[in-house]
Amino acid sequence: MNKPAVAQDPAPATGPVPVFWRVVRVAHELEARLEAALSTAGLSMAKAGLLRCLAEASEPMPLSEVAVHSQCVRSNITQLMDRLEADGLVKRVADPGDRRVRRAALTAAGRKAHQESLRIMESHERDVARGLSREEAAALTQALGRLVP
Fold first, then answer.
1. Mean pLDDT across the chain, nearest whole number?
2. 66: buried, middle or exposed (CB in 10 Å: 19+, 13-18, 0-12)?
3. pLDDT in the model for residue 4
């Protein structure tokens, strides 16, 4: 697998440790690796996130609620839903209480794709954790939690 190009730290090699740029660079690298792995299953992080949201719901969700849970604007959810629906992973269903409202529901293929996305993400989590000792993983988790609570 070809690694995507990664931006270099813009801070000079001498001087203080460029913590911010290192975190950003590593985050981009890890995101690129996960996107590449998910793409082998026909997914992206955005698609996997929407599938997770629907899988965790106890019933089909209104698109406006999906947008809130996904922290995404409704127009982006609509476009993402269009792509997932074309892939056969979700379907729009009528709201039984309000015919004007459309709800999103997973299909059987969507449930299967969600499980595959979980498998891929768990594999990547293990790969990242494998590069750290338990103590390092705990310290990193704690430090990152302080950066953005």
1. 87
2. buried
3. 47
User: How far apart, in whole angstroms, are the C-alpha atoms of residue 77 and residue 63?
Assistant: 7
Cα distances from 128 to residues 3, 27, 80, in angstroms, run: 16, 12, 28
pTM (predicted TM-score): 0.79
Q: How far apart are CA 66 and CA 50, in angstroms?
A: 8
Which domains are present in the chain?
A: 19-126 (1.10.10.10)
Distance CA 134, CA 139 (A): 9
Rounded to the nearest angstrom, the gap between the alpha carbon of residue 47 and the centroid of all alpha carbons in its chain is 7
Rounded Cα gap, residues 36 and 1, in angstroms: 9
Instruction: Decide if 78 contacts 86 (C-beta within 8 A).
Output: no
C-beta atoms surrounding 117 within 10 Å: 23
Q: What is the pLDDT of residue 125?
A: 92
Tens digits of residue pLDDT in 60-117: 999 888 888 888 887 788 899 999 999 999 999 998 888 888 899 999 999 999 999 9
DSSP of 80-116, one letter per residue?
HHHHHHHTTSEEEEEETTEEEEEEEEE-HHHHHHHHH
